[in-house]
What does this fold into?
Amino acid sequence: MPASSPRSSPLSTGIAGLDLVLRGGLPRDRLYLIEGTPGSGKTTLALQFLRDGVERGERVLYITLSETDEELSLVAASHGWDLAGFDVVELNSVEGILGSGREQSILHAWETELGETIRLVEREVERVRPTRVVFDSLSEMRLLAQDPLRYRRQVLALKQFFATRAITVLLIDDMTASEGRDTHLHSLCHGVVTLERLTLDFGAARRRLQVQKLRGVDFIAGFHDLTIRHGGLDVHPRLIAADHHQPFVGEPVSSGVPELDELLGGGPLRGTSTLVTGPSGTGKTTIALQYLFASCERGEPATLYQLDERIGTLLTRAKAFNLDLQKHVDSGCLRIEQIDPAEMSPGEFAARVRREVEGRGARMIVVDSLYGYLAAMPQEQQLILQLHELLSYLNQQGIVTFLIKPQQGLLGSMQTSLNVSYVADTVVLLRFFEAEGRIRKAISVLKNRAGAHEDAIREFRIDPQGLRVGDPLSGFTGVLTGTPHYIGDRAPLLEDRRHGA
It folds into this structure.
């Protein structure tokens, strides 16, 4: 088959994540609608689209009824850009319309007939002969028209004008019209992209994007989180785990503590997720750190996402338990990322995980803790679905995943508002119990989809020489009822050990 010509290939939007959603970009020489409420990122998207054209040596044209050249320059400067290579036409400026200069008298929108405005647009397009055009915005055209039927006729005339030319056009609409979304306008355009800005009860505003339609393209449907940063707009495509399978061998992964591995039938298998749960202070994070340390000792990159504890405190505590994580952080084998859930959406978090796995080659991922992740998503049902998709992705990549889930309370019946045990392949439970007037800890494995596991309850202890797992507590009753009680002999219990013992 002959190779496709440049004109038949998709046109990049200048935003890598959006191009992925669109399966490569926008079909060329078509009319598209970019709609969204004020502050959702429409102008930034439009500027990135035109900048990509300038970088490819194309002529681009920004036609504005709502923004001045100065205002556009300020937006561009906030991202470290300039408007060099752009042709900008202000339709509230006579001289801007005629292209004869910048200083001129003002021709206000209400003094101009819509038909004349459309003719001036066509005249500028003929003068510049661009391959990319942004028209900002349709709201002002509605004001000029004053009649919905007349407005739609003029938009149709505009479409017919561009249809005879090799130009890709973005129409910007801020959706401030009283009638809301214009479905007739949707039908006129080859594709429609909707941007939204969501205000939460606490934290930064969240933004998301949805492709409403794109004729002839099997785009990725649904909502995709986006962020506006210095340098432009980042789109985080919705994760579809089934699209990312990689072959791997599901072998057990050692922690470096044989007794701990025996509980899990040799250790968690590659391509599985392990949920470590229990009350605060039982050692959930330390177990995950032990596996991270062992992974880096084998030379396998690993990543810890810390949503609760400060990184400095974590490293100091790990060193006190004979886990020198700092050397692996310094070598680059271990990466610890501090995540602020109030500032990051689940979609952006999933994108970060993907970069670690696909870009850095991480073979182990730890999320500490799930309550921090919960804070990033007020709707729990959507959280569980997104978490399930993220774990499925990691499993298909052969990644060993650890999830830390604290339980509410310290003693007695443990409660949780986040039921995620069904999405994990393995569940490890830690509990406190009392014996001989001392508070001790117990560890057990409740389930292991990957294979056999011990059904014994063992004592668990952390001291300056590291992590220890004791013999089965045969005289220990009540751990699963929430009121653990030890009635056996003293012999099975772990005692203190000193350095060199």
